[in-house]
Give the backbone structure.
Amino acid sequence: MERFANRKTFHARQRPCWQRRLGGLLVMGLMAACAPLERDQTPVTESAERAPMAIVMAAELAVARGEIDQAGALYGRIADRMRDGEVVARGARLALRANDMPAAGRLADRWVSLAPDSAEAKRVQGLVRLHQGDTEAAVSRFLEALPTDPGSRDAAIDRLGQRLQDSRLPPEAIEVMRAVAASAPASAGAPLALARLAMARDRPTVALEAVESVLARDPASRGARLIRADALMALDRADEAFAAFQALLAEAPDDEALRYEYARALVSRDREAEALVQFRSLIEAGATRPRLLNATVVLALRAGEDSLALSALQRLRATSGPLSRRSLLLEGRLLRRLDRLEESLDVFDRALRDRPDDVELRYARAMARFAADDRDGGEADLRRILRDHPDNPEALNALGYVLVDQTGQVHEGAALIERAYEIDPDSPAIIDSMGWARFRQGRPDDALAFLERAHEMTNSDPEIAAHLGEVLWALGRRDAARTVWLEAREAADGNHPVLEETMERLDQ
């Protein structure tokens, strides 16, 4: 027990000061709240008004429930009666987060009165004034909060610029930042902070003006040149922007941030193939930035570069921790498409251990099991889905197709497909299955209408084309079948197993 008590004391000493103070207030408040009321005692609402500790307790309980708006409002009610600067600071930040400017204003003013030398108190006061539209007062508070040392001043201005990127702030944030930057005329960092803020708030003209002032003094400033390239792109001066990017890349070809910005610029001008070259080189060089990796996944998928998309996705998992459900689903599907079936199944197995009722993951595993020739496992997954979701059209169609195509259970399979068609009559995959079931039932004329419709909807999907061609072949229209197959082969830009097997089997 003694060691446990010491351990608790140790952890308490590590908590921020305001947390320890709030802890004491909460205990006292709970004691007060739990004390029995005498019959003539003042009602709870009135006693709470006279007891700041009870309000603080209520506010922190609201925070624990995720009710930040309520917490900020409660702190604001007792702003003038609190004497602990750190607790007031806590309330001011909460009210600011909740966008409760009246409460934040009262708390910030109280904070400054209790801690007149606190730069953070003045910054919060400035943010409140800016929210309230008093830009002159905001500038004054921000300037008062700046340190006198030039290096520290530049860093503080940069941090302020980041805070002013908050989209909830009014457009006047730019003019406030311009005034703050003007207070450091010899600084290169201040106009760069203004330029970054201007780009974040979609004011590229202001950004360009700011970086030009830096480049007039230091033409080699890479930070200013990169912002200039971004600003030129935003101003639709693409030729100048790309020239600026290429000049920078010639000097620093291994700069990851620069290549990423260049790739983004290429994407913005629909030059995705060139952008993908940049992303590929970044991946090969070991890039780990999550935004870069996510962008690579998206572009690679669009371009049909499954291997690159998978590499970026797996790098994302290695550097950023466990993937989201959506990313796991994508990884498993990519591995299946790349015929890495054992790895695909491993991804789905692990994902389903944590999410056994996830229909999309289970359906994806069923498809991977079928691809790995585990028909029993695939059927089991689909039947599990239909047990819990009997009207799921994808599962109905997939199981029906397998029964019709691979097991000879044509009657049961066709019934499942027809049920799927009733639910989703516009799905090309289900329409294709309807046609294939009719063909397997010996009704090629009925099958043809379904398959022609599905083929038209999907613009030469190779598997649908294989089915349509086989029905045309059975109806004696062999030239038409060959035309359908060859067009689909050309559109697929590579071998498709179902299409190739059908052509080899029928048209040797």
